[in-house]
What does this fold into?
Amino acid sequence: MLYWDYAAAAPPYDEVLQTMEQIMKLHYANPSSLHRAGTEAGKLISRAREVCATVLSVRPDEIFFTSGATESNNLAIKGAALQYTGRGRHIITTEIEHPSVYESCLQLQKMGWEVTFIPPDPTGVIDPVLLGEAIRRDTVLVSVMHVNNEIGTVQPIQEIGRIIKHKNHRTLFHVDGVQGFGTIAGSPREWGVDLYSLSPHKIRGPRGVGILYVRQGITLFPLLTGGAHEGGVRAGTENVAAIVASAKALRMCNERREKLVDRILPLRERLLQFLRSVPELTVNSSDMGAPHIVHFSYPGMKGEVMARKLEELGMIVSTRSACSSKHSEPSRVLLAMGKNTATAEGGIRISLGDSHTLEDIEALEQAILKAVKDLKPAEGGMK
It folds into this structure.
């Protein structure tokens, strides 16, 4: 079996697994405890915070650990909205965000906030000028993902950040950086980002931990209360082993970024060229997308059917983000891009990692050809 779902969860580095095991065996004490074992566990978290801050070129006290990027996104959006109601009750996001962002905004909308959803262009890109026109005096927050988790479109977040601060310097800018970190160079400060979410298990780290950068001077309304953990922003006993292992994964991923991109970018270009040569398929990813994601559709054929067929042929793929994969409705992202329902229902996401080779791509191509042939309806039949 060949695994093509790195965007959902990447296999952990061996060093990450070793770190997890070592910490769980030796440093199992509660890091909030006052005894020596607790103090040592707390120091490990402090060191991990420093490592993450160095990688992101920010301050250690601007790094907060959560249970995952979903919580980081929820905390950033709801925490900012609830904290800064005095500035207004207007939020801006896009129609193609990850469910953890999109549904957080819908929840706030039900609670009385006004939310503006910016549509993408046909390639999935958000127009910074269009977004800027929606900013008002009472706009508290703008949330835009860096790389789309379904089709891999890269958003011009630096330009968006510049426009936001020009239109309203008090408006906060949140970026879901989950699919961008590790393949795109830069830092939150360089991009003018105030809040930045990361998920270690997308970059070969452990599950069950997330990272949130909060620019100095910003206060978030805590969603979880019950302790002074994480500076009072997020109560709950810290997962020491996962936090330390996440810092290691973040550092390793950052150090290997250029090598990874050099390896997988030609593979992506080869795969895109192949997919465009198959008449039955529609490519939804642009040439300018992130180097690790390719998305295509077999219009009229359910994506789940194609995914199961490819798995029978030894290829593990996904239909969309893992958080949405069990829903049967058409892709919200593809519909927002103007794709028809048949295309939006037939999406397949291929996501590349550092283990993939040209031979793997060739095997995937043959599997796709066979799947198309086997699933193709008889002349005059229905898919």
